[in-house]
């Protein structure tokens, strides 16, 4: 539901105490006016959902809870929303507010979700559902691409000393991700590394859900992957520049890989699978850059052939590394029972890279047999 539609619903809930229209007919030649007319109506209450009008707050809460449990989030939002809007004194109102927000969130109705969560949210002082709602508001802002608003809200939470270290790290990690999405990778890296420093300094790592440090390492890896993507291999610039750029691109790949591997070591199944998938994709991407890059223009035909032969050797190494990483990622996913889009993508990529390696082997020219002037023995 859009903001304008929220105003429409609010208007429908108003009590109309009377409707009066007063006006005059248009003048003709200026010599007279017609008599005023007055229309009176009885007071009515207009409601937005006549079907739920007969239900009290207990029945609405029960209906919303039942619908949510059945994953009927449209109905859940309808019941909880009705309770919130028409039963302000209900003991269930705060829970209904939060649950209405959750239902809209499951439906990816981000504006509506933010509207519900915002009434509960208190990022500066809130605890319990008020703190949870603040995180939810930041999440809706992220999906609405209001990254700066999310960064500001999460910064308030991460600066608090009266919340657990787990929640502070959660806020910092989400803040860093929003900074990255806002196009500020340097700020994002600083924020994510701050969260990781806090985590590394803990004597008892069990204080923190492993999801967040693993996610932080993953997104630092993503920052270096973006730097890697920004390095373009252009053979027109000459062999020396191409070699320099290729080496730099490989260094960035290794930096990204290092952070992805740290994400895997933290031990969270979801981010471990995601990180393994990204490492394999990096090697696959570098392969595509190298195989599609023409030889530097200053090389003659013989030098270009030597260049391509050396490139083929490096390409086979990249494909083999990619296959090994994809296979290990799938083994980990199967061991922990992880199912995600990353797992599906890894399976598809593994099949693709194996086919590429096979095609490369089949394209390898068969060496000519050695020649000899000696006659074979009879």
Descriptive terms for the model:
single chain, 378 residues, mainly alpha, 14 helices
What does this molecule look like?
The protein has 378 residues and is mostly helical. Helix content is 67%, strand content 1%. It has helices at residues 3-12, 57-69, 73-86, 93-106, 110-120, 129-143, 147-158, 165-181, 185-200, 211-230, 239-266, 269-291, 301-336, 341-363; strands spanning 15-16, 44-45. A two-stranded antiparallel ribbon has the order 1-2. The longest helix is centred in the last third of the chain and has 36 residues, at 301-336. The protein is elongated and about 85 Å long.
Strand content: under 5%
SSE run? HEEHHHHHHHHHHHHH
User: Rough shape?
Assistant: elongated
Give the C-alpha Rg. 32 Å
Please give the share of residues in helix.
55-70%
Structural class, from helix and strand content? mainly alpha
Task: Give me a quick take on this structure.
67% of the residues lie in helices and 1% in strands.
